[in-house]
Amino acid sequence: MRRTRRRKLKNVLVTGRGPVTGEQYLKLQEKLRLELGEFQALMGITMKEHYLITQDPQAPLADPGLCLHLRLIDDYPELVDPEVSVLDLVQTVKQLKRDYPDLNLPMSPTLKLVGLMLGRNATTAPTWSSGRVTPPHKIMVLVRHLLTLLEERDDPDRVLQHYCELIDQEAQARGMENIFTERRWP
């Protein structure tokens, strides 16, 4: 039940034949559409190194290893994990319900259920599919982890069932009798 990759677009390089500069470093971050923390983690640099790079963006970068890594990622952006979306998780949950009809979900497998699965109110979730609102990074990391479990485990139905139990456990710890009836976190 692997996600299909999006149509491959032409890769426009940001690094050139000359030395790699801070400006190219910043353009690569933009090209990959990564938040600063994600990009720093990917490239293995500290906040101080990032700050020094951005102080003089026209200057060549001093670290040849960093330059080689930037060139490699620029040439092969597919090395960076593809972005996931909340809708990917919704589709996966719906497919699991179809594949495992005995799967007992506390509510229908919709965007509203996924919103609750992500610790958000059911009414918030539809705004994600409209494109008006993008979930914060911490929610997208949770989406990635859930998708990884549901796609790579041999028992995705049991994983999803257990996760729904965890949702209920967390809600009860917060004083809610039935989160799936109220459909909102306290």
The counted number of beta strands is: 0
Strand composition percent = under 5%
Radius of gyration: 21 Å
* Structural class by secondary-structure content: mainly alpha
SSE pattern, N- to C-terminal:
HHHHHHHHHH
Main sheet overview: none
Whole-number total of structural domains: 2
Please estimate the helix content.
55-70%
- Number of helical elements: 10
Mean pLDDT: 88
Shape assignment? elongated
Q: pLDDT under 50 segments (min length 5)?
A: 2-6
N- to C-terminal separation? Answer: 34 Å
Keywords summarizing the entry:
2 domains; 186 residues; elongated
What would your notes on this structure say?
- With 186 residues, this protein is mostly helical.
- The protein folds into two domains: 22-79; 86-182.
- The chain is built from ten helices and no strands.
- It has helices spanning 22-32, 36-43, 47-55, 64-75, 86-99, 111-117, 125-130, 137-152, 156-173, 179-182.
- The relative contact order is 0.12.
Would you spell out the secondary-structure blueprint of this structure?
Layout: H1 22-32, H2 36-43, H3 47-55, H4 64-75, H5 86-99, H6 111-117, H7 125-130, H8 137-152, H9 156-173, H10 179-182
Helix pairs in contact: 5-8, 8-9
What would a concise description of this structure say?
The protein is mostly helical and 186 residues long. It has ten helices and no strands.
